[in-house]
Write a structure and sequence with these properties.
The protein is mainly β. It has strands at about 5-10, 35-40, 60-65, 80-90, 95-100, 105, 110, 115-125, 130-140, 160.
Amino acid sequence: MRGSLVRLVGDCGDADIYGTGGQAKELGDVMRTSRSDTFALDAVPTVLGGAGAVVPATLSLTLGTPASFGAFTPGVAKEYTAATTANVISTAGDATLTVSDPGHLAKGTFALPEPLRVSIAPATGGPRSPTRRWDITFRQAIGATDAVRTGAYTRSLTFTLSTTTP
């Protein structure tokens, strides 16, 4: 604190070591092995410090293994279900995962009559968590009289992770 007394002890000698303006004098052979002085402080040095960090804007989406319905059975009315996951890393508090219009599963130009349905639900992590897993469920209804053809039915979908708050 201002006006506090500070005792300095060191190997500075016993002579008058300060000249005008606070400059030290050349003492040569007059030095002794130890000396102590008491000084009054006019100002206390203050150093401001702290710590900080920067978090970059992050939106990361990784899809799990592709979902598979297995084999469709012709002539049997059934709703088939398949699932996958999406892993999301986001520094935005309001990140939203959406999917494009799923349309219809198709084999070439032949499409199934019922549309593919997709639902997305959070599985882990709350809205404030930067890491969340989402469950993605696909449903495909096949009617007993729906025509199905031999081969693989597919549909490409676009999943979008977005935010309005960076």
